[in-house]
Predict the structure.
Amino acid sequence: MRAHPIDRATSLLCDLIRFDTVNPMGRDASLTQPVERPVVEYLESLFEPFDVPVTRQAVGEQHENLVVEIAGESDGSAVLFDAHMDTVSANDWVEQAFSPRVEGDIILGRGACDDKGPMVSMILPLLDMLESGRRPPSKVVFLASGDEEHSATGIQHFVETTATEFVLGVFAEPTGNMPVVQHKGVARWDITAHGKSAHTSQPEMGVNAIHEMMRVIEAIASYQDSLQAGHDNPLVTGPRITPSIIQGGIGRNTVPDQCRVSVDFRIVPGRDPQEERRKLIDFLADRGVELSHGDAPVLVNPVSTSPDDPAVHSIMKICSAVLNEKVRPHGAPYGTNASRWPGDIPAVVMGPGDIGNAHAIDERITIPEMMQAAEIYGQCMMTDWGA
């Protein structure tokens, strides 16, 4: 006898929350196994009773993916359903973070809404499909991905190695079950202003790199204003350039000869992060400050799915019917695994939960939203996207 869907959803999410899959964010954490291994093993046990391919993918030394494939009625292009297994740190509430709490129709714990709750909502229709013997019209590929919270190496590895042709990618994230079709990309790098050291008793003998950097930061703000003035995409806010770390000086009585600032440049849909970075570098070159620019360790494309794409219209109809309200396509300022999805294939980000609860103390999700998402994902899985 099958468990009631709500009971199953609650049990699955509580089990997943108990697994510590905190992403070390690139730091050497002296791991004895990949971050995601506890969830990988748990999911393998869920799908083991069914005759479907279930494959682990090693993603470097710290991370791994799990891929579940369900054949469709046709041999046409497949649909990807992605949800990530890793979470951010819970150092600020570690005593409770991995001990799930159920309070009425709310489940609390690290990963509840980002991204283990949305993952459960994807798993429920997959299990229902397999237990009932129904086959989807198109092949369904479920990717439980690793390392979304840091470098998205899990989805990147999958995209680079898969031989499957896809017609659509659906990415589980807490969006209140609203379809997000566009979100920003990002470019991050360090800018160094160079001056000339001198004794602070005679600062006129040197060039203060901190003062020079102040001019650069003012110029960056001016450049952002010009970009904002030309922005006309109603789905997302305009470009943002945030100086996030600043370092300079070697002593209290020495005029600093260097000052470095780290910038986070949020790129809007339709723009190329590499090109936008180059334009800002060229703009700053005319400010009269000696500057050098570090490499960009993070260059992530924005998601730019057209709101008029037929797949988007189909998903909006599904969401509208399940949620019993008129649903429109949305945009978002943050990034997701969808940024690594091929730009010529539609990508839609949607799932249960409130992004405001992600990464927070007492992270939470509501069971009704999870069940709505399961219905939405299930209908998407049973849609003939090839048609």
About this structure: The mean pLDDT is 95. The domain at 185-300 is CATH 3.30.70.360 (Alpha-Beta Plaits). The first helix runs from residue 5 to 18. The two ends are 36 Å apart (CA to CA).
